[in-house]
């Protein structure tokens, strides 16, 4: 593990940029960016377009380590280059931004009010490649839709099972058991989830640390005990479909919790903007999200 990256992730002032849209979410991300499906044919062209978008964000003078601590990458982005360098290398060497890899491959069907992660049989191979590419940590997402104790227990168990596999490779895992903001009993979901996460932390070895990426809770500072826990390096917030304004307003009420936004970061950015317009818009977004993260 890179000691400088680890110190930055544990103590740095800023937020994590989520640039990890996968095959399922890429068409929507491109459409919001002003590129509809008539502008590309097939997956290869689609992924070329999304890499162009990510490259434009990462190379922008507005995307700096002053506001951005780390960036979460899709596997294809890790395997590609930016300005002639592997993406993870470019992020760290040119920008001082810590590279993180999304490792889940999508969600299973809903059962017991939750969607577990689909199995990834070759996860160890992916984690080995991530280490070779200079990746610091990983991110894994599952979704909670209802306050079903059995479902939420299963979500936490799977998240920690994967986390231990990640830790064994010397990487730092980000566990993302997202509570759907549209859940009719969101606060109850959060209560059950926190119990399971605290129990799961007891199963980690002394000295091991994880990061949690969680939906902004209904009750401000609800995750304060997780933030203070010795086995938790950081607690970060997903935007979950909230607008940037709403997400930042809600996040600012949660002390010690920082942002890890995707759509709320890229909101308003389009392929049609001049570089000046694009960079100005991105600078505003980075500034607002950074401010909410240091409250």
Describe this structure as you would to a colleague.
This protein has 295 residues and is an alpha/beta fold. It has a single domain, classed as TIM Barrel, CATH 3.20.20. Helices cover 44% and strands 19% of the residues. The protein has 12 helices and 11 strands. The longest helix has 19 residues. It is globular. The chain starts with a helix and ends with a helix. The mean pLDDT is 96.
Q: Helices and strands, in N-to-C order?
A: HEHHEHEEHEEHEHEHEHEHEHH
Pairing-aware structural class of the strands and helices?
A: alpha/beta
Give the CATH level 1 class: Alpha Beta
**Percent helix:** 40-55%
Strand order of the largest sheet: 1-2-5-7-8-9-10-11
The number of distinct structural domains comes to 1
Question: In what range is the share of β-strand residues?
Answer: 15-25%
């Amino acid at each position: 593990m890179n000691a400088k990256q680890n110190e930055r992730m544990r103590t740095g002032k800023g937020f994590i940029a989520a640039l990890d849209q996968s095959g399922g979410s890429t068409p929507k991300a491109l459409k919001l960016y002003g590129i509809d499906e008539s502008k590309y044919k097939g997956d290869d062209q689609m992924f070329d377009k999304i890499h162009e978008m990510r490259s434009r964000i990462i190379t922008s003078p507005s995307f700096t380590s002053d506001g951005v601590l780390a960036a979460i990458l899709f596997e294809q982005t890790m395997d590609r280059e930016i300005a002639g360098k592997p993406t993870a290398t470019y992020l760290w060497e040119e920008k001082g931004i810590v590279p993180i890899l999304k490792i889940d491959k999508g969600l299973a069907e809903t059962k017991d009010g939750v969607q577990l992660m689909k199995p990834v049989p070759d996860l160890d191979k992916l984690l080995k490649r991530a280490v070779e590419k200079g990746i610091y940590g990983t991110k894994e997402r599952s979704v909670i839709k209802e306050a079903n104790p059995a479902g939420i227990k299963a979500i936490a168990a799977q998240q920690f099972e994967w986390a231990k596999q990640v830790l064994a490779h010397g990487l730092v895992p980000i566990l993302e058991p997202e509570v759907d903001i549209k859940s009719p009993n969101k606060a109850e979901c959060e209560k059950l989830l926190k119990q399971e996460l605290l129990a799961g932390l007891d199963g980690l070895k002394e000295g091991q640390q994880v990061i949690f990426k969680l939906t902004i809770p209904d009750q401000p500072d609800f995750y304060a005990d997780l933030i203070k826990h010795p086995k938790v390096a950081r607690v970060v917030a997903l935007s979950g479909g909230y607008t940037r304004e709403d997400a930042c307003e809600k996040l600012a009420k949660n002390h010690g919790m920082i942002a890890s936004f995707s759509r709320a970061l890229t909101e308003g950015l389009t392929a049609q903007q001049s570089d000046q317009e694009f960079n100005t818009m991105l600078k505003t977004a980075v500034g607002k999200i950074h401010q909410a993260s240091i409250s």
